[in-house]
Amino acid sequence: MPPASATCSPVGQLPLDETGTPRTDLDLEGQAELVFTNLDRVLAAAGAPRDALAQVRVYVTDVELWPRVDAVYRAWLGDHRPARCVVPVPALHWDSLLETEAVAHVPTAEVENAVSPASP
Q1: Domain limits for position 55
Q2: What Pfam families is this protein classified in (predicted)?
Q3: Under DSSP, is residue 60 helix (H, G, I), strand (E, B) or coil?
Q4: Given 8, 53, 55, 79, which is the most exposed site by the fewest CB atoms within 10 A?
C-alpha cells in the first residue's frame, strides 16, 4: 500500500521577495524566476520536490508573453511535465506580469507545515 499523501496547493505565487515586497520592477524573466523560486519555497516547506507537482496554472497579463514565461518555466522544471494551464488575464495584483497556482502530492504529515514564504 502506498504511503498516505495529501495535496498542497500553493496559490497566489506572485513576484514577491522574501520580505513580501512586490518586485514588479523586474523584467518578465526576473518576475518569472522569482515566482518559481517562491513556488519552490512552498514545495520545500511541504516536503515536496518539484516532481510532486501534478498541475501548474500560470496567469499572464498578455498571452503574447507566454513563450518567454514558458522558457523560464521549462528551465526551472526540467524534464517533469505536470498538467499545465495558461490563463490570460487583464491585470494582476501590484501590476505583476504573472502569477501561479499549483497542486502537488505530498506526504500527509508534511502538509500541515506548508506556508507561503511571501504571505503577508
Answers
A1: 5-111
A2: Ribonuc_L-PSP
A3: strand
A4: 79
Cα 66 to Cα 60: distance, rounded to the nearest angstrom: 7
CATH number at residue 104: 3.30.1330.40
pLDDT the model gives residue 4? 60
Model confidence pLDDT, tens digit, residues 58-86: 999 999 999 999 999 999 999 999 999 99
**pLDDT tens track for 108-120:** 654 444 544 454 4
Residues composing the chain: 120
CA nearest to 69, candidates 111, 7, 3, 13: 13
Predicted pLDDT at 66 = 95
Give the pairing of strands 83-88 and 5-8. unpaired
The model carries a pTM of 0.84
C-alpha closest to that of 27 among 97, 91, 92: 97
Question: Is 119 among the domain residues?
Answer: no
Judge whether 79 lies within some domain: yes
